Structures are given as structure tokens and as C-alpha cells.
């Protein structure tokens, strides 16, 4: 039993990296990101380099002092579209349909998971984004309404139930 508990605790690793937290699985593969709500409003942000430096300095200090923040977003893969990575210049309708049908099944699984877990994990919204590195990868940001202590271990403990649930459902 002790080994099982230790193995479960090692399933997710959280690493702070320049204002965000990276989430790694037990194989040390990047599984997602956590973006704490540091309390800066986008209207308050300065577009100048000086404004960004001040903001980053404040965020760094908040993380070093393990401040508590209200809310954040976890960003994880949603679906890898198997439509645009085609060597040919085109794809026929039947092939496109089959490829998208599998993606829709995955989206249905996500919708089901969301309906079942909104309240359990204090999810107050979501947003779908394309990956910067891969335009065929769609990611989902889950907006969490929870308190987070800015510390890798604390964030890991708080996110573990969500990550475990997504993993158990084959969504992560």
C-alpha cells in the first residue's frame, strides 16, 4: 500500500517557470500548464517593456513568498486534429469526415466530463485555443475558482484530483 501511495504522488510534477507552472506526467512529458490569477487586469497592463518588467518582478516576489491567489487556469490538450497534417494538398470528403468523427467523439467525452465535474472542481468556465507550436492541436483552459498557494507542491496537491480524473477518463 505504501508503494502505491508513493507512486500516485509521483504521477504529476509541477515546475514554476517564468510566471506559469508547467505540469509534467510521470514520464516527465509536458501534460499542461497552470496560469495563476495574479490579480492583474489586462486593462491595467502596460504595453511598455517597463510595465511588463514591473509586473514580472511583482509576480516573482509573489511566488517566492508563496502568496495565495484567487483562481487560475489549467491548460491541457483537448484534441489533436488529424486533418491539416496531410502530405497531399487536399483530402477527400469521406477521409475528412472519418478523421473529424474521431475528434468529435473525443469532444463528446470532454463535454461529458465537464458536465460531471464542473461543481466538484470549481470550474467556472473554459476556453478553447490553438497551440502556438501546432495549429492542429486544440487546448482547453479550465477556469478554476479556488484559492491557490503559489508553491509547486501546493499547486500539485490542488490540481492532482483534476489531473487524475482527466487521466482516468483518457482525456490527458
Description:
This protein is α+β, with helices and mostly antiparallel strands. The protein has one domain (2-168). It has helices at residues 2-9, 49-64, 93-117, 152-168; strands at 12-17, 20-25, 30-36, 68-80, 123-130, 137-149. The protein has a six-stranded antiparallel β-sheet. The protein is globular, with a radius of gyration of 18 Å. Residues 1-6 and 42-46 have low confidence and may be disordered.
Question: What's a quick, concise take on this entry?
Answer:
Helices cover 38% and strands 31% of the residues. The chain contains 4 helices and 6 strands. The two termini are 25 Å apart.
What's the SSE blueprint?
Elements lengths: L1 H8 L2 E6 L2 E6 L4 E7 L12 H16 L3 E13 L12 H25 L5 E8 L6 E13 L2 H17 L4
Antiparallel strand pairs: 1-2, 2-3, 3-4, 4-6, 5-6
Task: For this entry, give a set of tags.
six-stranded antiparallel β-sheet, alpha+beta, 4 helices, globular, 6 strands, 172 residues
Q: Please, what is the average pLDDT?
A: 87
Strand order of the largest sheet: 1-2-3-4-6-5
Instruction: Work out the radius of gyration.
Output: 18 Å
Strand content: 25-35%
Cα-to-Cα separation, first versus last residue: 25 Å
Low-confidence stretches: 1-6, 42-46
Using the alpha-carbon principal axes, give the shape: globular
Domain count: the total is: 1
Name the helicity range: 25-40%
Total count of strands = 6
> What is the makeup of the main sheet?
6 strands, antiparallel
Number of helices: 4
Order of helix and strand elements from N to C terminus: HEEEHEHEEH
Structural class: alpha+beta
